[in-house]
User: What shape does this take?
Amino acid sequence: MIRLSSSQRSGLVGAALLALVLVAIGLLTAYFGSRYQVRLVYSAYVNLIVVLGLQVFMGNARITNLSHSAFMGIGAYAAALCVTPENIKKISLPDAPWGLAQFSLDPVVSALIAVVITAVLALLLGMLIVRLTSIGATIVTLAILVIIHAIFLYRTDIFKGNQAFFGIPQVFNLTSVIAIAILVVIVCRLFRESRWGIQLRASADDEVGAAAMGVQIYRLRLIAWVLGAVILAVAGICYAYFLGTISARPFYFNHVFLTLAMLILGGMRTVTGAVLGTFLISFGLEGVRYLETGPVFLGIDLPEALGLSGIALGAVIVLTMALRPTGIMGNREIETLFVRQRH
Amino acid sequence: MLTIQDLHVFHGPIEAVHGISLEVEQGKCISLLGPNGAGKTSTISAITGIARSTGLVRFEGRDLSRDSVEARIAAGIAVSPEGRRIFSNLTVLENLTLGAALQKDAAEKAKDTDHWFSLFPILAERRDQSAGTLSGGEQQMLAIARALMARPKILLLDEPSLGLAPKIVRQIFDLIADLKTRGMTILLVEQNATQALKLADYAYLMSSGRIVAHGTADDLGKSDKLMAELTGVA
Assistant: This one.
């Protein structure tokens, strides 16, 4: 039996409050939403898991990570390669090496293999990253993103590049992704409030001061990095198991930028911030996309404005950084909003 | 209890302390005085294991000079560092918890936090507040309480009066005096020699990386040489 500290217990209260929000949005969509809206909300939940995976490392160690979409891609492709039926793989991947087209596994086993592969890869790369200074680490994560994307793109015999990798069984629905998202919220809160989480956040505040307290910074960064990668792999698996088709493009710059904006807007230091930012941007972007088409709005015929969503995302990052660099939530988690703070 | 012999401390290629020796006996308050840049903080960093050093650091008969920071904390050495180094984005409670970085038992840790909160009511009142919102004096109290969370046998206090108003400085020194009467062994680094000598049983005076004088507080208090060193007037 694991004993929880008092901070972890209040973390669970916060996680429960967030879970209520997640269940409410999810169930409303599942019962009343159109097919399009279900897809939209599903992808918002997948992005939520990505943003949470990003928060674990970036929010606690406060080192900007730009490779997260690549780790999501590794999880998605690894699971897809394992789970897709042999007869489909023989058609779609006729030149696959190492007998990759000669087997297919059960979805749960495939997901586990995908998580382990992502974790091992993250561990190896992480051992390099955690020793670097903040800027150095960020540049390396950018390089990782580019390298992994290049592999997805040019090893077409395995990943099919920009063409669709199809035939992945659709094992997940909206309910499954809600359940997984809630589980990930709980894991992130428990980690943040754990001894490790507090020590890691302290080292982000003052590296030398934390070292003087006996905090083993590199080890803690590595733990957060690998945990983050595991969550990102789970996000990738959710993505593949719902859509049934993946390609290299969704795991690149646009997605990195989108999820980064979500975390920055909500506030990277808290799990609540990650959830808030994801929903604000997911639903906000739908509004912007509507405006892009040049609709008739309140009797006014608006012009077409293609590219507006890209501008809006950039504006969100710029404005948040300028006006409230710690994001909407700052250092506050959801449960502290109900307690009056003295100043 | 703590013996230092021929300690040289290095910051990169620069040698900041040139072979000093000092002794801290159990239950005593020993003060390390000297002007800015004398090498006091470097000495503290060498004792805690943060700075690279050669020479002997013996604690309770055991040579710690090759040990890691964690091992030295586990042996019973805790520090309230220069400039307090409070983690301003963490709450007061989280800051305290960090002092017990090596304590894995959550129940024991909760017992200790309750104990120190009862002795520092002002910190208890602000336990869920960001530590950055505390006043300078409160931050210093937090830094001391955080060090005490490690259940140390010796407490190293590096310039606890730095940047505080005279009234607050007296409060902090009262607190240190109180810890001393409770039997805590203290190594107190200070520029504020008058206040430090009131508390200390024995003092060492450092200048330019060397110990230039040492003796009981009474002896040193009367010394003109000390005043000259501290004020920089020859």
Remarks:
- The beta strands of chain A are 296-297, 300-301.
- Chain A touches chain B through 29 residues (CB under 8 Å).
